[in-house]
Amino acid sequence: MPKATEGPCNVPKPGVLDFINKAKWDAWNALGSLPKETARHNYVDLVSSLSASSESSIQVTPAADRKQPGSDALVVTSQDGITTITLNRPDKKNALTTQMYHDIMLALEAASKDDSAITVLTGNGDYYCSGNDLTNFTDIPPGGVEEKARSGAVLLRDFVDRFIDFPKPLVAVVNGPAVGISVTILGLFDIVYATDRATFHTPFSHLGQSPEGCSSYTFPKIMGPSKATEMLVFGKKLTAREACTQGLVTEVFPDSTFQKEVWVRLKAYSKLPPNAMRISKQVIRNTEKEKLHAINAEESNILRERWLSDECMNAVVSFLSKKAKL
Ligand SMILES: CCCCC/C=C/CC(=O)SCCNC(=O)CCNC(=O)[C@H](O)C(C)(C)COP(=O)(O)OP(=O)(O)OC[C@H]1O[C@@H](n2cnc3c(N)ncnc32)[C@H](O)[C@@H]1OP(=O)(O)O
User: Which intervals hold domain ACB (predicted)?
Assistant: First the structure.
């Protein structure tokens, strides 16, 4: 309770991503030179309302309270020669928490060594994935926002590296809309099957961010620089059919038969000789690997700076305070 005990606001304003302290600072500063007793009452009122509103809007979940590996946010199954990694936060549109990035890396590592022939990434519920969970930005370590941006960039680079290096056929079963990083990494998948209900959206400029997942290289290569610019710079949302025409999606299925048709197809593919598939994939992909790692490192570095920009911070605050949606 700074104002209540110390008088007028006399400390520097916290960074914009330091949500709780910034709100307290703003309130303290707004009190100006009120007498201490009045300030004490006002401050108690403010903190009460902040705690109440943080229930529904700016919820800061301590890292220690986040779901641990083996929690139900990620479900991994292995059957019929297929390992399936399912994003399972349907109430949050399968947004990716920090924990989920780590768990997906572990799941890919395990899948690369298991007996399965094919690995699938899909989502549970109406969304495939709404991209990075924007509340990840609220978990500020003692080193501040710079440290947060630095560790985020390392995590991003490690995460994308796993996709670049994945040795077996990797298939995305896109069961609904896809946003942000869940779209950009599709360029690193070998097959992308989508329901006709899916959309593909990379609103990086809207969020003050920049492309990741090697999309700055894979998208122009897949669809040409102009179409890639429409998506990655102007945030044009593609329908599944548009994404298929542009080469990002392999095939689109009617939503009513999507699951049935896709799994019949994948089960048939999984019976092909696994070593032959693995070697063929590597022949197709290996020539690009070194380049992709360099691009990933560069994109992650650029994003680290973007995350510290006013444009990005304001976009995140807008979303978290329920003022903005895509
Ligand atoms: C290691 C770090 C790597 C970082 C790599 C960087 C990646 C960049 C990106 O991925 S950029 C993309 C970021 N994603 C977004 O900006 C999407 C934000 N979400 C939305 O705009 C909307 O939620 C929506 C369009 C996806 C869906 O809208 P709809 O109205 O259908 O549903 P709700 O908004 O009510 O969503 C249900 C609840 O889910 C929460 N939620 C959805 N997406 C996210 C998200 N990305 N981050 C955090 N929370 C998300 C939403 O807030 C609702 O929660 P509530 O029920 O508690 O209100």
Answer: 1-56
